Amino acid sequence: MTQKTPYIPLGMDLLIKLPMNRLSVLILFLWFFSCKQESSDSFEVSDLEITWSVIENLGGTYTNNWKITNQGDSTFPSSGWTIYYNHTVGVPVPETISGSLKVTQVSGTFYSITPTESFRELAHGESTSILLECYGSGIKITDAPGGLYLVFEGDEPQNIENFALGSFPPAEFMRRTQHDLVPIPTAESIYRENEYLSLLPVADSPGVIPTPRSVLPGNGTFEPGDNLTIGYQKGLENEARLLQARLEALGQFAQISEETDNADISLAISPFEQIDSEHYKLKIKPETISIVGPDTSGVFYGTQSLISLWPLPGSGIPGITCQTITDGPRFAYRGMHLDVARNFQKPDAVKKVLDIMSFYKLNRLHFHLTDDEGWRLEIEGIPELTGIGAVRGHTTDETDHLMPAYGSGPFPHAADNYGTGYYSQQEFIDILQYAAERHIEVIPEINFPGHARAAVKSMSARARRIEDEGSDEPKYLLHDPNDRSEYRSVQGYTDNVICPCQESVYRFIEKVVAEIVTLYQQAGVRLSTIHTGGDEVPAGIWEQSPLCAGFLKENPQIEGVGGLSGYFLQRYHQILEQQDLITAGWEEIAMHKQKDSEIMVPNPQMVDKKLLPYVWNSNWGTHDDLAYKLANMGYRVVMCNANNLYFDFAYSKDPQEPGFYWSGLVNTKKPFELVPLDVMKTATVDIMGNPIDIELYQDHEKLTPEAGKNILGIQGQLWSETVKGPELLEYYLFPKMIGLSERAWTTDPDWVKLPKRSQRLEGLDQAWNEFANTIAQRELARLDHLWNGVNYRVPPPGAVIEDGILKANVAFPGLEIRYTLDGREPNENSALYQEPFEAKKPVKLKAFTSTGKASRTSVLSY
């Protein structure tokens, strides 16, 4: 009987034919393995090119294509490798993957691509593709996968540098659902959107944002000399030094002294003034400037208004018009949420945010320090929290660090790995003191029971270490190792929820809270509140946990698995109460499931617990009255409406504009148009751009007059999944934060009180036109001169050609528009658009600030 002979590929389809026997099989096996090993060793990852493209959005899902090409001379092998990557909208629809490669969700947003048995090696110039359908939408650069790297079996990971984003499909295939009416911006659509705006004249002296309550004009001008003096009353040295530093940033040298009588600028606390905390009175006379307030914070805000009025270097404005400003805030809580858990920001970046927050009179930093993808605060005695939970990189078991997330890549300490990093105790103390000097309270968030994966994995590693060492240290185990519950969080995790049925969880929380209290004490700063998170706890948790089964049997009053979230919140709340701290959390902490239903409704039983819910879920037409329901019930509330105040949402639907959009798009106007105590007054379109029927709100709950005091204030949110580095941090925040400060500080403008909806919207447009002019002609230049400049977004111009005549405009009137007619990119020296002109060629346009910062290019075909 003749034996069959195997055919083994070698090089370019060369076949070697050998008779089969035991020795030859062994030799062939060793030879073939060495060839495969040599193939992977000789292949350069830099020769691998991957292009990702969106083919079509299908309404709830989208089709995308991966094209993998070998551009090198060596063969890319048929097996023995894995490509890893992150993808926020990459969950494949089952049975939709076509091609010879397998896509697997490893954990959360972390995926792998591996070859199937049908995959064949790729010679020079050869390509293969994966076509698959994924849940969600693919309409933006931030929807693309990131952090790609390749691992050959037994080798170290290597970054895939040659990754490209293919072109997006035509507009008709870029609709998130069939109801999506939001256009992809074009030069023409931007022009139509800006048509109601007009250029307004600017007074010789700049104004103040946020808008003061009262401004009384005076006579004359205060012209600062070279040797300016700032005199301060005892107790106001901090405010004087900060004023001195900011004036120097504007080119004005000043000396400070604890002597107010002969000072050019005097700062004083005036107890006889019948005004409230944080209020101030700023008097500018030809010879002197005085700032008084009932407390240091009031005086500080008076100095910030003075900085707003101070002439910029090179402006040609000699001084400040005399006037008297009497001012104070509308809301006691004026906040900004900063997520440093998903992607880390170094202390200097945080301090810069604090500087600009204080300039715009915001007074709360909600510091999101922990989440699934990172734990960012050093806790004495628990080194694993930062040793493991603050580090991301390639791993198969997460014993040393966490897996990559949000494109952080394989190398834990690479310069561009924003997944790695934490604040040492001293760095955190420095941030607390820096904030306190600027009259900002830092509210730390330690998120439980969901969004806890970094802590869970860290404490699992700790438990293994202690067991191996035989140590008597506390393990602080946060999960039930025998839990077989099936669940999946919003971010795709199946292991990110702590187990509330074991005491080690509460010992851990007690330890962390005590350490945070100590850090605030060492900083000499008041801690009033800890934010507990409490959001997005997935269904299915704890149902198959033996620990919870036993715990519930011993505690029948908890009423089953459904009662464990409430039990955990009570225990967390008790720990904070023992430290005399307020328990804050996302809106879910004040909600429970309606009886015999999965619908979440306000929980009246928790009102007396003095919880502080932050209301975020405000999709138009569904949950936009939730803040009012809770306030009417007696809860104190901070409004964080996603529709208006989520700053990580994209400015527009332009595919090149970064950001999320799951609750709509948020441009600079969105926070400005928010009416905190009656959000329905400016609700015009839903998140898909469809007009909102005002009748929809007839059954919505209104905020009662007496419950208005329960709205403590408003807060902007910056989640950091797409924020990689301080430049993007600033791009998302500014100039959106300017509109936030206006709504948080200033009382409702007159247009809010108009009786008809059409009148209110007309009044809003007029008010926004004035505000947009102010941003363009005053605020952006000030952001350029202070804090070594700010990477704010400049809106691209709009343009149309009508009857052969080109017309152009911009969202912030007062910015320069420059253009080219020869296909080159416009720059500061390109032709300046001043009035409509005849255009017979394609036009490229950009908007420029007075300091030369540019927008993206708008292209208009003739």
Number of strands: 37
Strand composition percent:
15-25%
Question: From the 3D coordinates, which CATH architecture of the domain at 45-180 would you assign?
Answer: Sandwich
Mean pLDDT value: 92
CATH topology of the domain at 45-180, which one? Immunoglobulin-like
> How much helix, percentage-wise, in residues?
10-25%
Helical run tally: 17
Q: Write down the oligomeric state.
A: single chain
Q: Poorly predicted ranges (pLDDT <50, ≥5 residues)?
A: 1-20, 31-38
* Biggest sheet architecture: 8 strands, parallel, barrel
Shape: globular
How would you classify the helix and strand content by structural class?
alpha/beta
Instruction: Please list the strands of the largest sheet in the order they lie side by side.
Output: 19-20-23-24-25-28-29-30
Euclidean distance between termini CA atoms: 78 Å
Name of the top-level CATH class of the domain at 45-180: Mainly Beta
Over the alpha carbons, how many angstroms does the gyration radius reach? 30 Å
